[in-house]
Amino acid sequence: xxxxxxxxxxxxxxxxxxxxxxxxxxxxxxxxxxxxxxxxxxxxxxxxxxxxxxxxxxxxxxxxxxxxxxxxxxxxxxxxxxxxxxxxxxxxxxxxxxxxxxxxxxxxxxxxxxxxxxxxxxxxxxxxxxxxxxxxxxxxxxxxxxxxxxxxxxxxxxxxxxxxxxxxxxxxxxxxxxxxxxxxxxxxxxxxxxxxxxxxxxxxxxxxxxxxxxxxxxxxxxxxxxxxxxxxxxxxxxxxxxxxxxxxxxxxxxxxxxxxxxxxxxxxxxxxxxxxxxxxxx
DNA sequence: TTGGTTGTTCGTTC
DNA sequence: TGAACGAACAACCA
Length: 282
Known about the structure:
Elements: H1 4-18, E1 23-28, E2 34-35, E3 48-52, E4 55-59, E5 65-69, E6 74-80, E7 91-95, E8 110-116, E9 119-125, E10 131-134, H2 137-140, H3 151-158, H4 165-169, H5 180-189, H6 203-222, H7 232-236, E11 265-269, E12 272-276
Parallel strand pairs: 2-10
Antiparallel strand pairs: 1-8, 3-4, 4-5, 5-10, 6-7, 6-9, 8-9, 11-12
Helix pairs in contact: 1-6, 5-6
This protein binds a DNA duplex through residues 1, 3, 54, 69-73, 125-129, 138, 161-163, 167, 170, 172, 179-180, 230, 270-273.
């Protein structure tokens, strides 16, 4: 499930290979997921690859940001142009790990194809939740990135909200980029019960939680994001991230807390799987 | 076969 | 009036 670190990992990899490439044409296979007309991008070249929250943005110049939202199962695959022997020189993959990472492109779940002079970009999505849009309004409505704010600003964002702290962390209009995995782990770092209302934390908890958010996101980026545990074949090929080896509480139901005193508990909060240690998260 | 899973939207309730 | 809540969306897998 791509969150900020997973998208940032794709961004870093993609920018290396796609910067300067000119878009020759594109093909939309699933019109439902494309909002607006992409024709204005034709014959424009990539200036840079950016990210806001969980949205990847390919910058084609002033006023031309092409946004990709991966939702749960979106992925991008970029293949450098084939050489004279028809061998793919390099493939960059990112997003939700599936066998499409290693299969031939386009695949069963390919929703749109972008043909560049230097290679081909495939947007795949098992479901039809993800979307592609130029200058998406969604991005304008996002709250600040965790890395852009200080502790004081963080506190001001939370202190008026009477909702469970974990749900607030995941609210993109308040702070952008944090999804279920990192929200769970950040609460553990902050020693906060995910159910605690955002306006009731102690001063120390606000402090520890802010540091925790930064820490788990940095770790996520450091390890190249998290790859689903059931996608072992992807790990074998070295294509997946490894944050999953560093989960604090996420997915650890029934296991001993990393602080050594307590068993990780799972319950549903806001319709989402929530993991915490009742001993150390108050 | 049904239910669980996920991020975001949107309609409803408080 | 705004905040909070919860169902819906799509498709896969256990």
